[in-house]
Specification:
Blueprint: H1 8-33, H2 55-65, H3 69-73, H4 80-113, H5 122-144, H6 156-181, H7 191-216, H8 244-249, H9 251-276, H10 283-288, H11 290-308, H12 320-345
Helix pairs in contact: 1-4, 1-6, 1-12, 5-6, 6-7, 6-12, 7-9, 7-12, 9-11, 11-12
């Protein structure tokens, strides 16, 4: 798709969307870390936009939460005040999603009315809308998975799907903005480099999914040591692995894969940086080539600290582990975007 880099207002609108999606994913991380995701048991698109405003309203919402397995099996001693805390983060997460929808719809109507959309923009905009709608639907399916039976948290596989789809929406929006902002002379056709970036991106998506498995299974405390995994580099229990479910359900196996992928990514990004560290005729590419290596080093450090500080977790309190885990997720998003930018800058000019 060829889009002239002249539609600056539309590009700024898209970059605003990128920033808001980053915040939304971060809010999802806070919701998960505070155990807030199941505090709202219904999805009311319009009436749910406002939080409870009276004592009677709060009593109704609390009564609904008391019917959930999470309350009955885990938070049975919760007070109304404690419920209000977790309710706030889930409500704010949903509120921000609604705000993203408004920020998409209103400028979209304005740009359409003033004919600032070129014909080549229509298809990407429709894809953005569908990705956003799909994300909302998967989000509710994920929440619903924790409201029945003996579930006290959402299913990790659905959490991973929700997270990866959110990153897909983020990446696609950023790519669209780059098409409108980056002059053609800043792109350099580097097929070999581009293949390496695609390989690293594929690994990163798998790694991010395993990060969601770590979070969904609350696996950090299962092996709070580094560089070993509870005293072993390759855990003995891996020899008993049977079937794919073992690799997405066993906490130690998830640790092993998540850490292993991190080391492979680190090596791959270092090699990529060396290959990019020569003149290519694009100053933007030269600058952008330093982003992934900086971010992947920071990401590895934050991952190690998250594991080591997992022993300090105190239920209901925000501490060092929560800060490390939240920063770990944020840097992961920035690393993803830095690689998307490299992928765009090394594509052939059309």
């Amino acid at each position: 798709m060829k889009i002239e880099a002249t539609s600056r207002p539309v590009a700024i609108w898209l970059l605003t969307g990128v920033a808001m999606v980053v915040i939304q994913i971060a809010l999802g991380g806070i919701t998960r870390l505070t155990g807030s995701g199941l505090s709202i048991t219904e999805w009311n698109v319009v009436t749910g936009a406002l939080p409870p405003l009276t004592a009677a309203d709060w009593a109704v919402e609390f009564a609904k939460y008391q019917q959930t397995p999470q309350f009955r099996l885990l938070n049975f001693d919760f007070t109304l005040q404690e419920f209000k805390y977790i309710f706030f983060w889930e409500w704010f997460h949903r509120f921000w999603a609604r705000l993203i929808g408004i920020v998409f719809i209103i400028p979209f109507i304005y740009f359409l009315w003033t004919r600032q959309f070129k014909s080549t923009m229509i298809r990407p905009l429709l894809i953005l809308f569908l990705l956003g709608a799909l994300q909302g639907a998967v989000g509710w399916i994920m929440v619903a998975s924790g409201l029945t039976g003996d579930a006290i948290y959402v299913k990790p596989t659905r959490l991973a799907l929700h997270f990866v789809l959110a990153l897909g929406l983020l990446s696609y929006t950023f790519w669209f903005a780059l098409q409108l902002l980056v002059p053609g002379d800043q792109r350099v056709a580097l097929p070999a480099i581009r293949k390496s970036v695609i390989f690293i991106l594929s690994l990163l998506v798998l790694q991010l999914a395993y990060g969601a498995f770590m979070a969904g299974h609350k696996a950090a405390t299962a092996a709070p040591s580094w560089p070993d995994i509870n005293g072993q580099i390759v855990p003995d229990l891996l020899s008993n692995a049977s079937g794919i479910l073992f690799w997405v359900e066993n906490k130690i196996a998830i640790h092993f894969v998540h850490r292993g992928l991190a080391y492979i990514l680190l090596i791959a990004v270092v090699l990529l940086t060396f290959r990019l560290h020569r003149p290519h005729g694009s100053r933007l590419l030269q600058k952008a080539s330093w982003f992934p290596i900086t971010l992947v080093l920071l990401q590895v450090l934050l991952g190690i600290l998250s594991v080591l500080y997992s022993t300090s977790i105190i239920p209901g309190q925000w501490g060092i582990f929560e800060w490390m885990a939240q920063l770990h997720q944020l840097v992961a998003m920035l690393l993803l975007l830095s690689l998307v930018m490299l992928l765009y800058l090394t594509r052939e000019r059309v």
